């Protein structure tokens, strides 16, 4: 892919850290941090539900919990967590798993796990991933719901943002349409919703009005969160604009890579609905910190491809 840039941009080693406005997340230390949400009948989902989260893993460990209602022996509640397979860079959902290598550290990912009458599906950044194994026969239980922890103190290391819990199986189109937008909290089927935008304090408030507030346990820290404004140009979702994003943008523009729907959005830096040379030049301006707020499209631009 580096050859694609030879007639487009110089090799650039500068990087520009994204400025993430007033969006927040919580950083879990992987040792004892989690959020506790009291058990409630509306959270005892067994047959049809969707779990969504934005995650920013900083390291990977065995079965580290993201969303879990499985904390006592044989409770058999639903769970979304890292996989049991070393190096734990995959995801597990109700005991079915992706392959490893689908996650990298220090990158934001949108995760959506769907149970549709027993059939499990899992989406990462809007794209469906194959699951293997036999799904858990999920049962209602009296366990608390926890964010950042699974059974036996399996703690997540990294940031978590925008948790959404639905009592309906959402389809892929609906997931993609709303995964980068703020919800009202009144959407049909939404039983718990956490924006993480409090930014301080020891309570995570449920935005549905149903009172499923969470208590921060173990002293996790507030941190910058995922935002759509921070995503533009960040094709690999690592919160840094650099040459790697430019390489990916060029590869997608030239159809050498397909890109996910979310990557396609990030590639359209000037938001004109077309991925072209103007987006590349604008991204380079951001990388060089010429004008991080510029969105104006160039009036002229062209490129050539050298197959050397």
Helical content class: 10-25%
Shape: globular
What's the average pLDDT? 87
Q: Could you tell me the number of beta strands?
A: 20
Query: What fraction of the residues are assigned to beta strands by DSSP?
Result: 25-35%
- Weakly predicted, low-confidence segments: 1-21
CATH topology descriptor of the largest domain = Jelly Rolls
Biggest pleated sheet: 8 strands, antiparallel
Tell me what the CATH architecture of the largest domain is.
Sandwich
Ends apart, CA distance between termini:
12 Å
Domain unit count: 2
Give the radius of gyration: 20 Å
In the CATH scheme, the class of the largest domain would be: Mainly Beta
SSE pattern, N- to C-terminal: EEEEEEEEEEEEEEEHEEEEEHHH
Helix count, DSSP H or I runs of 4 or more residues: 4
| Secondary structural class | alpha+beta
Keywords: Disulfide bond, Signal
Domain Dockerin: 228-296
Domain EF-hand: 255-290
GO molecular function: calcium ion binding; hydrolase activity, hydrolyzing O-glycosyl compounds
Report on this model:
By secondary structure, the protein is α+β, with helices and mostly antiparallel strands. The chain contains 4 helices and 20 strands. The strands form 4 sheets. Strands 2, 4, 9, 10, 11, 15, 16 and 19 form an 8-stranded antiparallel β-sheet that branches. The chain has an 8-stranded antiparallel β-sheet with strand order 8-7-6-5-12-3-18-17, with no helix packed on it. The termini are close together. InterPro entries: ConA-like_dom_sf, Dockerin_1_rpt, Dockerin_dom, Dockerin_dom_sf, EF_Hand_1_Ca_BS, EF_hand_dom, LamG-like. One of its GO terms (molecular function) is calcium ion binding.
């Amino acid at each position: 892919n580096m050859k694609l840039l030879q007639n487009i941009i110089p090799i650039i080693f500068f990087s520009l850290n994204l400025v993430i406005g007033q969006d927040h997340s919580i950083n879990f230390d992987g040792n004892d941090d989690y959020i506790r949400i009291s058990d409630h009948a509306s959270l005892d989902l067994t047959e049809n539900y969707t779990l969504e989260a934005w995650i920013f893993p900083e390291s990977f460990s065995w079965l580290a919990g993201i969303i879990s209602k499985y904390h006592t022996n044989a409770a058999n509640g639903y769970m979304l967590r890292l996989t049991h397979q070393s190096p734990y860079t995959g995801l597990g959902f109700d005991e079915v798993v992706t392959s490893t290598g689908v996650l990298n550290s220090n990158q934001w990912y949108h995760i959506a796990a769907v149970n549709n009458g027993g059939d499990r599906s899992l989406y990462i950044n809007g794209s469906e991933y194959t699951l293997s194994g036999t799904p858990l026969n999920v049962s209602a239980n009296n366990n608390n719901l926890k964010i950042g922890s699974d059974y036996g103190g399996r703690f997540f290391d990294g940031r978590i943002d925008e948790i959404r819990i639905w009592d309906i199986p959402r389809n892929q189109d609906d997931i993609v349409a709303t995964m980068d937008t703020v919800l009202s909290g009144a959407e049909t089927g939404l039983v718990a919703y956490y924006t993480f935008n409090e930014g301080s304090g020891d309570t995570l408030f449920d935005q549905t009005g149903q009172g499923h507030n969470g208590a921060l346990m173990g002293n996790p820290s507030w941190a910058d969160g995922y935002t759509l404004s921070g995503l533009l140009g960040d094709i690999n979702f690592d919160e840094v604009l650099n040459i790697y994003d430019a390489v990916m943008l060029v590869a997608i523009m030239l159809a050498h890579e397909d890109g996910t729907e979310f990557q396609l959005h990030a590639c359209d830096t000037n938001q004109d609905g077309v991925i072209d040379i103007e987006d590349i030049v604008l991204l380079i301006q951001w990388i060089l910190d010429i004008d991080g707020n510029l969105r104006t499209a160039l009036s002229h631009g062209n490129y050539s491809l050298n197959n050397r």
